[in-house]
Every structure is written in C-alpha cells, then in structure tokens.
Amino acid sequence: MLAKKDTPIFSIKRRLFRYLAIGLPLLWLVTMSLSVSFVFHEMNEGDDAEMREIASLMATLSVAIDTSQAGQTPDNHLLKALESDDADNGFAIWTLAGRRLSADELGETIPFNSNHQGFADTQSWWKSSAVRVLYLQTTDGKVIAIGQRWAERIESAVGVAVSMLIVLLLGIPLFILFTNWAINRCFSALTQLATDVDNRSPNDLTPLNQAIPKELQPFIAALNRLFVRVAQTFEQEQRFTSDAAHELRSPLAAIKAQSDALRLSPNRDKQLHHAEQIGTAANRATHLVDQLLTLSRLDPMTVAEKGQTVDWQAISEQALQNVHHLAREKCSSLKRNIIADSPEQILPLRGDIVLLVLLLRNLLDNAIRYSIDEKGESHEKNVVELTLANDYICVRDHGKGIADEYLNRVHERFFRPAGQNETGSGLGLSIVERIAKLHGLTFSLDNHVEGGVVACLVYEQTKTK
Amino acid sequence: MRILLLEDDYGIGDALQSSLGELGFNVDWLADGALGETAPDVAPYDAIILDLGLPHVDGLALLRAWRQYGVATPVLILTARDALPDRVSGLNAGADDYLGKPFAIEEVVARLHALIRRYRGQQENTCQFGALSFNQHTHTVTLNGEEIPLNKRELMLLDLLLSEPKRKFSRADIEEKLYSWEQEVASNAVEAHISNLRKKMGKNIVKTHRGIGYQLGEKP
Hints:
By secondary structure, chain A is of the alpha+beta class. In chain A, 52% of the residues lie in helices and 14% in strands.
C-alpha cells in the first residue's frame, strides 16, 4: 500500500544503520584522540622521569670529575656512556659561572641557565627544533642540563595514533558487516509477520500469534484488537444482509402466491382482490428496499453534513405534509405544539435537512400506524402530537403502547413485535436512531403514563445535565 | 382434503387459502401462534402448513408441542429461512417436509398430496377401487376407463371414503371434512352429495348404516 504524500516513508533499518555507521566511527575517533593525548601525556611523564634519573646520576658522577681541568672534555668512561648515539638526546655541564665543562652534540645547543632549576623548553614544543631541558645544580657548583628533542616524543605519540587508526580502519568494515547482519536478523521477525499478514485470506480474522519481539507486542496487540472489531462488524453486516434477504422474501412470496391465486380464481371479484394484494405486497417490498437503501447510505456516515441551521418549523411542516395521507387513511388527527418564543429557539442545530425530515416523518408514520387502540378502532383521542420545544422534540401517540418486553427490542433492525397487523420493514426506528446520532441527538422511546408511546429527541449534552 | 394453515403474513395466507380452495382443498387459516396450539384437535386435518415466524408462539415450538401430544398429522413447513441448519432443526422438530419462500402453488399442492399419500400409506397418486380409479393430483375419477364428472365436494367425499374403506363416517365427520367452520351447511347437504355419487357411479358405491353413517360400498 502506498503511503500518503505527506507521510514520508522511512526505513528503520536504513536509519539505524546510518546512525550506527556515522555515530560509532565518530565516537571511535574521539576516543582515539583522547587516548592518544593521554598516551602522549603519560609518555612525557615517563621521559621526564627518565631525564630526572639521568640528571641525578650525572650530578653524582660529575662531582668526581676534576674541575681544575676545566675546558677539557673529561675522558671518563661513565660520561662517555651517557653520550647517546642519537642526536635526539644530549647533555651539557657548566660551571656556575657559565663555562661549559662538557657537552655532546645536542648538549652544545642547550643554552646555559644558572637561575633555573628543573624542566624548561628551548622553544614551543611543537616546533621542530624544540628541546626539552632539565637543569640541575650539583653540590659542587656545577650546572648540568639534560636535553631531549620534542620531535622524538611527538614521533612516538604519532606512532601510537597511527597504529590505533589502522585498527579502526580495519574494524569499521567488519563492524558495518556485523551491524548489517544483526539488524537484518532483528528485522526478520517483522518481515515474516508482514508475509504472514499478506498471505492471509480476507475472511481470516483470527488473532496473530507468531513469536514476535517484545517491542512489537503492543503493535500486534492493537492489530489483534482491530481484528476482533472488524470481525464483529463483519458478522453484523453478514447478519444484516441475511436478515434483509429474508425480510424481502416474505413480500416476494406474497406476490408469487397472490399471482398464483389470481391465475386460479374463477370470478372477477376474487381476481380483483388478488391483483390488489399483489400491489400491496409490491409496495411492501419497495418500502423495504427503500429503507435498506437509506440505511446503507446512513451507515458509513459518521457525522451529518453541517449544512444549514435547522428550521424545525419548516422541517416539521414538510414531515407532517408527508404523513398527511396516511393519517387520513387511519383517521388520525395530527397536532403540532410549539413551546418556544421564536422558531429559532427550537433545538438549535445545524444539519442535513433531508435527513431530519425523514427522521420526523418516520416517527410520525410510526405514531399514526400504532395510535389505534386494541380493538383496532380509532377513537376520538386518536391524535398524534408533535411537540417542538427549546431543548427537545417529541412525538406522542395515544395507542396501546409497547409491551415492556418489547420496549428494548424495537430498536433492533427487523424486529417487529408479535401480533400486529401493520406492515412495516422493522427498520424505521433504526433509521431514526442513526439520523439522531449523526446530529448528536439522543433518541428514546417510552410508554406514556397516560397511555400511548412517546418518542423523544434530546441533545446529548442536555440529557447528561 | 382439509388443511390447517398457520401463516401470519396476510398476503401469503390469503393467497394460499384462496388457491388451495380452488384446487380442491378446504383450508382453515390462523395467523397467531397462540391459537395454533390446540388447532389440530379442532378438526380432522389431513395436513398442516406451518410458517415458522409466527407471533406469540414460534412455529417450531408449536410443532414440538403437537408431536409431544401425539398429533401425527403431516406438517409442511413454509418459511423464508431455508438454510440447511434451519431445515435440519425443522425436520428434527417433527416436520415432514420443508418449502422455502417464495414458492409456486403447484409445488405446495404436490407436496401436500405426497405427504397425505404417505400418511395414508398409499404408493401412488391414483387410488384404485375395483373398476374405479381416482387420481388425487388431477382430481379425475374414471370408471371402466370413462371419466366421471364430479364437483369439488363430491370429489372430497369420495376421497374421504376411499381413505379409510372400513370406517363408517358419521354425517358430522363428513361435514367437518367438506366444509370449514365458517361455512353454512344445509342439513341435507351430505345426503345430497351421497345420492349424487350413487347416481354417477352406481347405487352400491356407498353403503348406508342407518343411524351410524356411511361407508365405502362394493367394488364396481
């Protein structure tokens, strides 16, 4: 399925991989530079300690050297030994006055300094000719300096850094391969799940119960809950279709049976009677189909078109006009009460006028049909009242009412209380309920204490007050 | 043949009563399940047509109750719900046949004949009595190959006598079969039908038992 244009598709796998592939080497580089600087620092300390040792050794030794032979390089084995072969290390010995007694190649470049004891750099350490120098004054009045080129120390540190970098460069591809494998492995459960869902038949709404990672459990649980809801809706729809088909069979059977009867009837009066009955049954079938179509249009709606402000006076006039003929047939009289100062104050609402007319028409139609008393006679109280008020609208008849056992069931689709002669689809109240709900109205049906049935429409908010 | 019809749909009930009446049946029609409970005892019905969706008492409950009381009359169920489980539960409750709506009247008639025939232990639609042959389906009677014209009541009377040759039928038994409760019956109506049968098929076709009633006579 294609995602909407405004919801960009992204791959968790690719994203995760990108984060890991960029983040981890960066982290590695930072760690490496920290390590290198730490190693450099440690190496410096080590080298300094070594220089200190050499200096104190030289100080001890130099005491033994005859200062009277100043100016000559002492030909001493020990001092010779101190002279390193490389040019990176060196030493120099001076008298306090600054006369150099001895020095090797590097030592000759070390400047004399009698005021300073301890370490000093000849130049900033990163310069190529910079030398680390340790000055020390001996007990016999000499100044000893031990020097080491900074370049050598930096070289060692760079060596360490390079070796770490090599490890890093070799490690990254291996790491990427491993990460890719690991991510794929983690996502295989998801891929498997997708395949399973893809392969499902549309009727299979059993819950998913594969072994799935814990992180996916909430999603699967939600999906399973959806399956349950879809299954319920599915079942309801199926039952509705089956009920509808069966309900249609009765008027069709009547048409068929009456046409057979018409064919077999020898006399004209009987033929006319059966022809009339065919018409009645056809009307019943048509009415049922109309009701079914209305419901099928209403069912998918979630909210009514918030068209125009509802003028209940006009709507009720239309609805009353629609049932006028039926009322004449049933000898019912229609009465409208308006309990509001102005028509605009009646149950203010915005909505679909056509649907609201249908709603009132269905209620009035029901009231007229069932306003006849038990003897099937219409008496002087056979009045159907429509009341329009500020916060409610109700339709009342003066018939025999609905038996308590059926009161809760009359809302059910296709339910028709037993033992009645009135033809109906059993869908009228379903339609009323649906339209009321779409407009945020609550529909209720009750027996009136003084007899008859009263159907009420109230604002959902008003009712909860 | 007298049929009890239980159907709450006016269009269907009215049409069945009228059509079956034209086709030689005597139909009593009730529209409420509550009235149906004792209905099979009211008259000697040959068959019952039962709709399942009856008000007050459901058709199946009615059928079970009848079978429990020992009512053996064949029952043809007529319903809009004719899926397999519905048929099975109907037949299990004691129905003899099942017909889904909508239906053709000819099929109802054919099934009623089959049910009644089976109930009476006959193999065919034609009942043979010596040289007399009576086809219940086509409502034709022939004697020595020649067709004898009989009216509806005469046919019903002959059918009744042939159904139980050894039984002596009282005048009331015959009236009950030939007429429904709402029909006015002249006091000499049965005698008139008997004499018509004798005129058309010979004197000995019906035997009279004085003070008791009538019985099928000698084979022609």
